[in-house]
Amino acid sequence: MISSSKTRLEECTVEVLIRPYTPADWPILWPVLETTFAQGDTYAFPTDWTAEETQKAWIVVPLATFVAVSEDNQLVGTYYIKANQMGNGAHTANCGYVVPAAFAGQGIATRLCKHSQQEARRLGFLAMQFNFVVATNTRAVALWQHLGFQIVGTVPRAFQHPQHGLVAAYVMHKWLADPPQQP
């Protein structure tokens, strides 16, 4: 989620440390995720998910989850990384990002996405794909495009937005590595 309708893209204006999630982070991470999903305007997760359901999706299922914390140890963002598909599609990563509204527009999502691309390469992924970017989340769409992602598909009327009704969702993709040379 990248809230706000502004599309101004900024470099990170606050000092943040992006580090692996630990169970001690859950008490501050859960309210951020709960609020984001309850708003129902950026993720296709149920708006009434329990802590356990959210924890499974954001912490347990992914390969890794990261948190971004400020100098004064406030949670300013998070992301997960996992394989987009199993088997022959497992070379493509999938990530989800959340930045609390209070920290939107400070370049934190940019830092998180850049970090996730480095992490994806480190884990051996060759590409990254976002399967369901809500079209009305224009700030996220602009940021992902700025960072080299392309819209490779549009799913019409895929998302039931609480204010706008049925809106499109984009599939966005970025190749992270050069393909291996053919013999």
Automatic annotation (TrEMBL):
CDD domains attached to this UniProt entry: NAT_SF
Keyword terms: Transferase
GO MF, any single term: acyltransferase activity, transferring groups other than amino-acyl groups
InterPro entries assigned to the protein according to its UniProt record, in alphabetical order: Acyl_CoA_acyltransferase, GNAT_dom, Mito_N-acetyltransferase
Alphabetical list of Gene3D superfamilies matching this protein: 3.40.630.30
SUPFAM superfamilies: Acyl-CoA N-acyltransferases (Nat)
A Pfam family this chain is assigned to: Acetyltransf_1
Keyword Transferase in annotation: yes
Domain of life the protein comes from: Bacteria
Domain N-acetyltransferase, chain residue ranges per copy: 16-177
Keyword Transferase applies: yes
Protein name (database record): GNAT family N-acetyltransferase
Record organism: Desulfobulbus oligotrophicus
